[in-house]
Amino acid sequence: MLVTGGGGFLGSHLVERLESDGHEVVVARRRDYDLTSMDDAARLFDEARPELVYHLAAEVGGIGANRANPGRYWYANLMMGAHVLEQARVHGTTKLVIAGTICAYPKFAPVPFREDDLWDGYPEETNAPYGVAKKAILVGAQAYREQYGTNAVFLLPVNLYGPRDNFDLETSHVIPALIRKMVEAGERGEEAITLWGDGSPTREFLYVDDCVAGLMLAAERYDGAEPVNLGTGEEISIRDLAELVRSETGFGGSIAWDTSKPGGQPRRRLDTSRAAALFGFEARVGLAEGIARTVAWYRAEGR
User: Fold this and answer.
1) Is 130 tagged catalytic?
2) Which of 69, 201, 272, 273 qualifies as a FRET site for 109, CA 20 to 30 Å off?
């Protein structure tokens, strides 16, 4: 089997799990294959000849990174997905599991987000190019299924976190950014940190190992055309999340909120009933436990 983006955060955890289960895995890393190039994508499939492909390769980041790279995020994610789909068709790949994104949902989608609401509005502006690119891959997967019989399934994971996440403050998502800011501020003895927005938006978070389990269950049990959410079905405000991370890191200073900065989509919470019904997925790691594991990893290995 083949895992694109296998050297990345989610991909490395999936590869580790697959190999521990005895599977032979080809790991496609960016340094070896530029999947925005059709020639490189073709070379990868020629060499790997995979029956099962997990397409996880993506260019992604937090609000700041999305604002700085809208064109790149649109282009890279669109091209990678299109090239992987086309090569799966050309090579007769038995199954393709594609990781989409929660950012594809409309900015004001009814909460909880249901898969049937995916097309009822435009995504939140700061990450719309990335989200729209991923939605286009869903359309492509459904079109290839209809015309060529390509068994491509499309999953919509909520915000992921866990060990080996990206902790670069310029490009990271909110949980690793909070962990790094608070750990470093505590070590330097700083009395305050500043966070973007006002803390009111809500988010849902899925521990990386739970996402891996969802991907594998979908590969084993799901062969449908409709997109499927992967998440916990639980939301937390950014302000409450910051307090949870403060508790786990032991940061004793104050938190200031820079309301001149964007906070992103107002609310995010998924309806996860489709994943439970279609392939028996249920998240197992609670947020407090997952953050504690992530903080411990960051202190031991993340720097």
Assistant:
1) yes
2) 69
